[in-house]
Inverse folding.
């Protein structure tokens, strides 16, 4: 049975964005009267996932997670470490997302699971820039440039087999260099770096090379809805999301 993990750890030194809004953590920011964490857990449950864990520290986020019927899991020193601990507690298959995924929809979770290949150990959802800008032109995201376009992460991962644990150390490396993809490519060898710099490497090819290096099969899931790449990480994000929800109403 598929379980899910919501990453809601606390940054060292706290989160200035959350503190400016008068809450101790982003997961407690309210949209339409509901905390972000409640929105995310609700979407996962609507997608058919019954067992949901929340990786967080003791305090109000843990209290809310318990009230939502989620399992409170110990947060590690960074997202990758938290995922490693969650794999021990929840096992695979495991959907991983974040507590600031304010617009998370059940169909995106079903898409992540339903489109993965049977032999994939890890699946990662990303959205092409044109799809993101079509859905929400006002949002500003960080994009990775590949031969098949520019891509933005969606904070949605599917760890399908126990072999996915091999990706944890690499996940930590990607965390450190996520805004400098050339450094990630350089760690895969000069051939990969040159291919990327010359615009000859597609995103799936990059995942294939990364997967082979660590002994897993990694698959790209292209998001059909660009809103899947929108999270709430700063004030501008929050304003854009609030405008969207107001427009829907």
């Amino acid at each position: 049975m598929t379980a899910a993990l919501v990453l809601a750890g606390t940054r060292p030194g706290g989160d200035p964005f959350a503190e400016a809004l008068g809450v101790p953590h982003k997961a407690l920011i309210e949209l339409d009267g509901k905390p972000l964490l409640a929105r995310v857990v609700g979407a996962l449950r609507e997608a058919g996932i019954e067992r949901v864990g929340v990786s967080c520290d003791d305090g109000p986020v843990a209290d809310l997670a318990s009230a939502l019927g989620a399992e409170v899991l110990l947060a590690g020193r960074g997202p990758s470490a938290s995922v490693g601990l969650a794999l021990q507690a929840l096992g695979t298959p495991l959907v991983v997302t974040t507590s600031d995924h304010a617009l998370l929809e059940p169909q995106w979770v079903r898409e992540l699971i339903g489109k993965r290949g049977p032999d994939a150990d890890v699946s990662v959802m990303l959205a092409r820039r044109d799809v993101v800008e079509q859905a929400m032109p006002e949002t500003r995201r960080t994009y990775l440039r590949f031969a098949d376009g520019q891509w933005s992460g969606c904070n949605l991962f599917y760890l399908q087999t126990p072999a996915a644990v091999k990706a944890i150390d690499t996940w930590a490396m990607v965390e450190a260099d996520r805004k400098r993809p050339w450094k990630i490519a350089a760690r895969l060898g000069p051939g990969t770096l040159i291919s990327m710099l010359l615009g000859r490497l597609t995103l799936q090819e990059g995942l294939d090379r990364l997967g082979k290096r660590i002994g897993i099969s990694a698959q790209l899931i292209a998001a059909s809805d660009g809103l899947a790449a929108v999270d709430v990480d700063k004030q501008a994000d929050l304003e854009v999301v609030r405008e969207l929800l107001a427009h829907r109403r």
